[in-house]
Specification:
Elements lengths: L1 H21 L16 E19 L16 E16 L10 E5 L11 H8 L6 E14 L2 E5 L2 E7 L1 H8 L14
Antiparallel strand pairs: 1-2, 1-4, 2-3, 4-5, 4-6
Length: 182
């Protein structure tokens, strides 16, 4: 008798867990939300980078949500850091300088995720384009009671070789050259 009660309890809990994972449309949050003012900036990164293209990656995690609903599968835009314009580590913790940076632009079903303007800019890029790429390494509460690191993209825009040269010289007065298109 107790064996049947235990079995039915385990099955009920498993069924409930599967429904929670598979039912994001029912209002159950699947992605962390960041309350404003609760994130500490650990590192500020301002770089000149080269766009390496966008590739689809499949999550290799081994949870019930993988690979379709875990949020780690999809299209990722890849960038190689060419030069650092600013690296400001504000304490003991934080990332070292990076040689690459990745931004997720689609989910498993190839539906766009993230900011529309950023996705539009990335879709208009060609491999090898130079970009101004800025992101912060932050740490703090992403959900009530859950702290985690985040690396939000602060700025992404295509730049010309001339603009890159000016930026490397710490000049902020970017005058557009009429002979070059951004």
């Amino acid at each position: 008798m107790t064996k049947h009660i235990l079995t039915s309890t385990v099955l009920s809990v498993t069924f409930l867990a599967l429904n929670v994972i598979a039912a994001p449309e029912k209002g159950i949050p699947t992605k962390p939300t960041t309350p404003q003012g609760k994130m500490e900036i650990l590192v500020v990164n301002r770089t000149i980078a080269k766009y390496d293209g966008t590739a689809f990656r499949l999550c290799r995690g081994r949870t019930l949500a993988c690979p379709e609903t875990c949020g780690h599968s999809g299209g990722f835009a890849n960038f190689s850091v060419v030069d650092y314009l600013q690296y400001d580590k504000r304490g003991k913790y934080g990332d070292a300088k990076k040689t690459s940076f990745t931004v997720q632009v689609t989910d498993f079903k190839k539906m766009p995720i993230g900011e529309k303007e950023i996705n539009k800019r990335i879709s208009e890029m060609k491999k090898g384009d130079l970009v101004l790429l800025c992101w912060n390494h932050t740490y703090g509460e992403v959900r009530p009671g859950v702290k985690s690191p985040q690396r939000p993209l602060i700025e992404l825009r295509k730049i010309t070789a001339k603009e890159a040269t000016i930026l490397r010289g710490n000049k902020t007065d970017l005058l557009p050259d009429k002979s070059e298109t951004p």
